[in-house]
């Protein structure tokens, strides 16, 4: 089965063509600068790459360009779009309405439109991708795979905010969580790597430009760090993470900011970028720290300390831990962050092996000492596979 995986953003579009049954990727790429000029970066075959400047005034032209690259010219991997069996779409916010992946129908799109206030930047682009694919490939099944779905198993005492209850009943104000496809994939892989198969207690640290931590008991999420929106939780590339409401109000009054301006600062100018004053890319900050830049040192320590706090609280929430998992660009590659996070967690049964931790490898691996009571895994995430596999399951009638 060939699944066309689509992740439509406001001005970009990521894609893959995959057979989820055999986990084979035939092509992948990204359309950038949609609505400005347009660049298609297409990867196919054994590491072959194609870059083309193509006019993309809208997402429709971007998707048309991708389909053309897949079916014709140098980057061709299939004969025609008829070879595509289904389309799987990343959908950011499903609210409480979607706890699993679903076939895209007019009712699903209508519901996603109602949820736009919860994800004003993401849901409109996701919906647009679905509608364009329905137009360009009529009759092909489209499946929506929601970032929030995996976290719908959280108990009410974990997802509720201590605001007046009618803010929840009237407006749906609660924690939803994000990066669900990654947390699901990594926690499921970790369960397979453990000797223990039942009542597993797993903590997943998805660390990248956007970061989140989840607590997963027996395959089900019981808590996660992100909230109503992705700004809550960990300190990230440009997002502040947890900030007290009083601090936000004080900043607004001192700077004469509107709430929209303050949220722009918290979303785009804070986090690693805001503290370091240098970059949102942790690799550059680690280099700056080695060169003696004290603000880079501070940013690195704040990142690791925030992760460590969440790990500790989730060990308590899970009543122990069988595996601590690191994934994402930072989680998989920044050995120093893993080292700082795990330092002092011996009492929780988590003992890092420094030699294993510093070996650069791209596969899933255990970096705990042989005598560690709990395992510490580095597991490369594969969100695209989750989207493709869920699409296959929905189309074939298999339960997700």
UniProtKB/TrEMBL annotation:
Keywords: ATP-binding, Cytoplasm, Kinase, Magnesium, Metal-binding, Nucleotide-binding, Transferase
EC number: 2.7.2.1
Cofactor(s) needed for function: Mg(2+); Mn(2+)
UniProt: ATP binding residues: 14, 206-210, 281-283, 329-333
Site (Transition state stabilizer): 179, 239
SUPFAM superfamilies: Actin-like ATPase domain
Homology family: Belongs to the acetokinase family.
Quaternary structure and partners: Homodimer.
Protein name: Acetate kinase
């Amino acid at each position: 089965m060939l699944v066309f995986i689509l992740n439509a953003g406001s001005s970009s579009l990521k894609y893959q063509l995959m057979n989820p049954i055999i986990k084979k990727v035939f092509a992948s790429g990204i359309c950038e600068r949609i609505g400005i000029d347009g660049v298609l970066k297409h990867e196919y075959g054994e590491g072959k790459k194609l870059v083309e400047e193509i006019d993309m005034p809208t997402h429709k032209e971007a998707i048309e360009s991708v389909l053309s690259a897949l079916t014709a010219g140098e980057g061709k991997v299939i004969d025609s779009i008829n070879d595509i069996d289904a389309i799987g779409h990343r959908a950011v916010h499903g609210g409480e309405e979607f706890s699993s992946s679903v076939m895209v129908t007019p009712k699903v799109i209508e519901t996603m439109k109602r949820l736009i206030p919860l994800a004003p930047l993401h849901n409109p682009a996701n919906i647009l991708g679905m509608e364009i694919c329905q137009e360009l490939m009529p009759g092909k099944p489209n499946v929506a795979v929601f970032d929030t779905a995996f976290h719908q198993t959280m108990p009410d005492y974990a997802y509720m905010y201590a605001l007046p209850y009618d803010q929840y009943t009237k407006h749906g104000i609660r924690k939803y969580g994000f990066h669900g496809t990654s947390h699901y994939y990594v926690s499921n892989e970790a369960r397979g790597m453990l000797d223990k198969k039942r009542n597993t207690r797993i903590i997943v640290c998805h660390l990248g430009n956007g970061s989140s931590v989840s607590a997963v008991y027996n395959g089900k999420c019981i808590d996660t760090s992100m909230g109503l929106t992705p700004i809550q939780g960990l300190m990230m590339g440009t997002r502040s993470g947890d900030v007290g409401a009083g601090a936000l109000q004080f900043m607004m009054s001192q700077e004469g900011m509107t709430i929209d301006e303050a949220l722009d600062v918290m979303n785009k100018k804070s986090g690693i970028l805001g503290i370091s004053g240098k970059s949102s890319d942790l690799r550059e900050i680690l280099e700056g720290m080695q060169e003696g830049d004290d603000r880079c040192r501070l940013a690195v320590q704040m990142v690791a300390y925030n992760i460590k706090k969440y790990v500790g609280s989730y060990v308590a929430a899970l009543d122990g831990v069988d595996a601590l998992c690191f994934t994402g660009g930072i989680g998989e590659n920044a050995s120093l962050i893993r080292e700082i996070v795990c330092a002092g967690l011996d009492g929780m049964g988590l003992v890092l092996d420094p030699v294993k931790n510093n070996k650069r490898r791209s596969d899933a691996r255990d970096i705990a000492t042989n005598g560690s009571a709990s395992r510490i895994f580095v597991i490369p995430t594969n969100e695209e596979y989750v989207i493709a596999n869920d699409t296959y399951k929905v189309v074939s009638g298999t339960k997700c």
